[in-house]
Amino acid sequence: MDRQEKERQVAELTERLRTSETLIVADYRGLTMPQIDQLRSKLLEQGARFTVVKNTLTSKARRSPPRTSPSSQSCRRRRCCARRSSAPLPRR
Q: Among 62, 89, 86, 87, which Cα is nearest to 73's?
């Protein structure tokens, strides 16, 4: 991933964090791919999105003002984020 792509992802993640009503950060290790897919599907049904994000990109995004973000302690291990906002999710 080149620098421009990383910058784009940080900007996108910053906006997601800023507009999220709810953010859940969790350690996903130990889940199988079918379990992750099932979780992702259930979250989408509820209007939430499940995303796995690189720790360094998450740290950069959460440092962007003006949003209060999860503590640095919560972003030190491999994590996934489930978020919900009032805006409809775009289809992929």
A: 62
Closest to 48 measured CA to CA, from 89, 3, 7:
89
* Angle between helix 3-19 and helix 55-62 axes, rounded to 10 deg: 60
Report, as an integer, the average pLDDT of 18-27.
Answer: 82
What rounded mean pLDDT belongs to the chain? 76
How would DSSP label each residue in 52-78? E--HHHHHHHHTSTTS----GGGGSS-
Residue pLDDT, tens place only, 35-73: 999 999 998 998 888 888 787 887 888 787 544 444 444
CATH architecture of the domain covering 3-84: 2-Layer Sandwich (3.30)
